[in-house]
């Protein structure tokens, strides 16, 4: 695949207009936990109707698609949240939707896919990852919405950056969960145009942190992957076409443990009355751990999703790790 070209601010503004009927403008709220910590703000994408930011990119990609291509339906490859984003928008348009999911996808997300009227097609993780790498599956028909490396998806995600700058003009640092880079690079694209002085960091989990390893190596590398309850991030490698964008836009990768993510989830429940899934809380975990060489001023943690299995939440609130 060809490297993804930088996303223009005009494309992000245009995306905002297209997705206004599907995605909401999510709240940006302060988190007051301890005076020794930085001024922390939470961008609550977990409050989207599907519980995830993915509704933005899916809506923009499908709005830009040729109606003739959409007529045969849509499909995507997703661990659960992009599945819901595409399924939600397919339901709005009255077209069929199929979702290729890893066979480790949590039941909570599979149930949500079914409620939205889509069909889940489980595959072993490596075969599922090949769908993302190859931008489709030979046995599927219809319009393929890539969950990460589609410029229209990235532009839709970038609308979050517009809202952060508008709602918190003095923002100093932004931390974003990193799965494939579509969210962090979208937000960083907006920041690069509107506030080039504001660094955007990725947050990864140590069970699989391909961006951190790739930044260290100076090129995309594969890493060993240990499955965990943090299912929305933590792939075994970077998509090569995303490397130029991620390496040029992101200030670095902040790697956290599953224990630190659990602590962040407990903090969100107790202090902000918000439920985040593992991937969604990775950004706050990184902020609470400490951002190296952080600039003075407000730090925004993007809480990317809230689709956490209730049983996992119970375990976490009991001070365990699912």
Indicate the CATH topology of the largest domain.
Answer: Rossmann fold
For the largest sheet, list the strands in their spatial order.
1-2-10-7-8-9
* Strand proportion: 5-15%
First-last Cα distance: 37 Å
The number of distinct structural domains comes to 2
Just give the CATH class of the largest domain.
Alpha Beta
What string gives the helices and strands in order? Answer: HEEHHEHEHEHEHEHEHHEHHEH
Instruction: Report on the biggest sheet.
Output: 6 strands, mixed
**Any idea what the radius of gyration is?**
18 Å
So how many helices? 13
CATH architecture title of the largest domain: 3-Layer(aba) Sandwich
How many β-strand stretches? 10
Mean pLDDT, nearest integer? Answer: 93
Which descriptor suits the 3D outline? Answer: globular
Helix content class? 40-55%
Protein model, in words:
A 6-stranded mixed sheet has the order 1-2-10-7-8-9, sandwiched between helices. A 4-stranded parallel sheet has the order 5-4-3-6. The longest helix is centred in the middle third of the chain and has 17 residues, at 151-167. Helices cover 43% and strands 15% of the residues. It has helices spanning 9-19, 54-64, 67-70, 81-93, 107-115, 125-134, 151-167, 182-194, 210-217, 243-249, 258-272, 278-289, 310-317; strands at 28-31, 40-44, 74-77, 97-102, 119-123, 143-145, 173-177, 200-205, 252-256, 299-303. It is built from 13 helices and 10 strands. Helix 2 packs across helix 4. Strand 1 (28-31) and strand 2 (40-44) form a beta hairpin. The protein folds into 2 domains: 9-52 and 151-317, Rossmann fold (3-Layer(aba) Sandwich); 55-145, Rossmann fold, CATH 3.40.50.1100. It has 322 residues and is α/β, with parallel strands linked by helices.
